[in-house]
Specification:
Order of helices and strands: HEHEHEHEHEHHEHHEHEHEHEE
Bound molecules: D-glutamic acid
Number of strands: 11
Low-confidence stretches: none
CATH architecture of the largest domain: 3-Layer(aba) Sandwich
Radius of gyration: 18 Å
């Protein structure tokens, strides 16, 4: 997780102008962001959450970082236009590609981003070997390199990109034989090397934790950073006095740049509830998101 160190109202005029009643924007390339949304709702039940899945462009992880940066910038413009007071980048890949740049381009808006949770893994491993699962773009980014350099001295960090896993999860194939094969390809060599911790460095992966635990067995700890990200979002809102004061105001608006009906059908499976999903359209020429007509 990555976030500003000392959030103060003077630093974030856009957030202060939006006010405590404004929504918290949350985005990902797809359904992965729902694993973070779930934690945000648990910890911040009074907030209005605006969740955007950029499913027109999923997966992000095999794309060049510059292209993902363009998508992220377009999404943040859109969330800002909807009055967001805080943006949670519920995507390791978009954080790797664009977080630094977004903080420069939108200095008045606070962001909570994600980075693979190598630090807690390195602090608690007993075997001295940890495995990180993330997308190729996340592993390429400077953020990951700096996390490993700062926090994993003396610890062996093994990595795997799990090709095809994001697509399986987008398709709701949480227990399919192909999903198991992808995870076994990633985990069995790491387990043979003695890892005792698996870091989920992609927000899609918490949806296959049961399968990961089956493959890895009881001696292996699986780290999902979503609760820590939600706590950081809460700390920022508190520091800026921007928590929604209404006891019963919590709600989620679901948006996708892909097929709204398909995302709507996935919600019960992934987060155990039904809700309407609205479409937004990615305008290729302008590099921006527009509401769908009608
Ligand atoms: N959920 C994303 C992440 O945390 C992106 C996966 C993808 O689109 O490749 O990295």
């Amino acid at each position: 997780m990555t976030a500003p160190n000392h959030p103060s109202p003077e630093r974030y005029p856009l957030a202060m102008a939006a006010g405590a009643m404004a929504p918290v924007g949350v985005f990902d390339s797809g359904v992965g962001g729902l694993s973070v949304l779930r934690a945000l709702r648990q910890l911040l039940p009074n907030e209005k959450l605006l969740f955007l899945a950029d499913q027109a462009h999923v997966p992000y992880g095999s794309r060049p970082l510059a292209q993902v940066q363009g998508f992220a910038e377009g999404i943040v413009h859109y969330l800002l236009a909807q009055g967001a007071k805080l943006v949670v980048v519920a995507c390791n890949t978009a954080s790797a590609a664009a977080l630094q740049r977004m903080r420069l381009d939108f200095p008045g808006l606070p962001f909570v981003g994600m980075e693979p949770a190598v630090k807690p893994a390195a602090e608690t491993t007993r075997s001295g070997a940890v495995g990180v699962l993330a997308t190729p773009a996340t592993f390429q980014g400077a953020l990951y390199a700096s996390v490993v350099e700062r926090f994993a001295q003396g610890v062996r960090v093994l990595q795997h990109t799990c090709p095809g896993l994001v697509a399986q999860i987008e398709a709701g194939q949480l227990k399919a034989p192909e999903t198991r094969r992808i995870l076994e390809d990633a985990l069995l060599p790491m387990l043979a090397e003695g890892i005792d911790t698996v870091v989920l460095g992609c927000t899609h992966y918490p949806f296959v934790i049961p399968l990961i635990e089956q493959i890895a067995g009881p001696g292996v700890r699986v780290i999902d950073p979503a609760p820590a990200v939600a706590r950081q979002a809460g700390r920022i809102l508190d520091a800026l006095a921007l928590r929604n004061p209404h006891a019963s105001a919590g709600s989620v608006t679901y948006l996708t740049s892909g097929d709204p009906a398909a995302l709507q059908a996935m919600l019960p499976k992934l987060i155990g509830e039904s809700a309407p999903v609205r479409g937004v359209r990615w305008d290729e020429a302008r590099g921006s998101l527009e509401p769908l007509a009608g």
